[in-house]
Predict the structure of Putative esterase.
Amino acid sequence: MYPPVARSVRRRGVAYLAPQAAGNTWYPDPFTAPVEPNEPGRTSALRAIDDATATAEAAGVARDRIVVHGFSEEACLASESVARNPDRYGGLVALGGRLIGESIAPDEYEGDLEGTPVFIGVAMAIPTSLLNAPTSLRAFSNGSAGT
């Protein structure tokens, strides 16, 4: 059974893995809060994304065919996961989210994302999604997580 969002973009040969948040929330405070109050939820959520990626790879899907995506909290987690596990992905799509934390220091993210398409979408209707969006983009610029 496809989740509702997957039904609208259903394609033959495409699998959708959608981890479920423990207690239906990924982390308790806003993504713009300092990281510490969002622990251990943040770390648990990032592990769920890592596990989904590992599941896809174990099924024979190469990482450069995996698109990590999310909306709102999930967009923040998708961004954070890709930035902290740099490699050539099929893509990153972050809608209404960005890297997690009160402030973003692009130099804290090291590694190479060269060739990975990145789309970070923000909405005027969700003003918090605009906060530090340019800094998030810089963290993914030039195909590397830390440049």
Remarks:
- The mean pLDDT is 80.
- Residues 41-58 form the longest helix (18 residues).
- Residues 25-143 form a domain with the Rossmann fold fold (CATH 3.40.50.1820).
- The two ends are 40 Å apart (CA to CA).
